[in-house]
Amino acid sequence: MNIEQAAALLPKIRATVEMAAKEWSLAADHSGDRIILTRERAGFPALPVARVVQGAPFDDAELVINTHRNAVALLLLLDRRTQQVSAAQRENERLKAELDQAKAPKLARQCAMLCDDRDFQTYLTERHALDKSGKDAVASRVRSILNIRSRSDLDRDKDAAARWANLKKDFRKWQNPNS
Fold it and tell me: Measured between alpha carbons, how far is 22 from 4 in angstroms, rounded to an integer?
């Protein structure tokens, strides 16, 4: 049996275990055979479902006798592991998003630093009609040029980030016209 075949059996196994009697017991008859009994619930008669004959190989007999208990245990373990895997996947996604955020360019901070740069301010005055000096005026003019409400938009909006990249590229050309 391969994993695909086993996976295909899982729904049937679950359904069978769910539908099977909840109470299982073992008794012996006068010949020494072991009888597996099931009972739907307390107060119902115990009904024989299997007989393990005297002399049956011990391990085989144990497998048959404990099949219900083992199937229930394995399904519980499978469900628990599935929950753990799902939780680990969610945590992985959360950490990946956190890492992506940490790796993301801090364009807003970069923009704020460049706005303090005298050369950048001169560039804005010459190329983009900056008519006042001071941090607020520079920041306001850059927001206007980039068509953003806040420099933090640069870290969230790909189009705004692209406009910022173009503005920086133009600034670098202005700074170094021969390169």
Answer: 29
d(CA 93, CA 62): 44
Query: Where are the chain's structural domains?
Result: 3-100, 107-175
The answer to which of 8-17, 40-49, 156-165 has the lowest mean pLDDT is 40-49
Both tokens assigned to 83: 């929950």
pTM of the full structure: 0.56
Residue 38, CB half-sphere, CA atoms under 13 Å: how many?
14
What is the largest distance, in Å, between two alpha-carbon atoms of the chain? 108
User: First CA to last CA across the chain, in angstroms?
Assistant: 67
Taking alpha carbons only, the member of 115, 118, 116 closest to residue 164 is 115
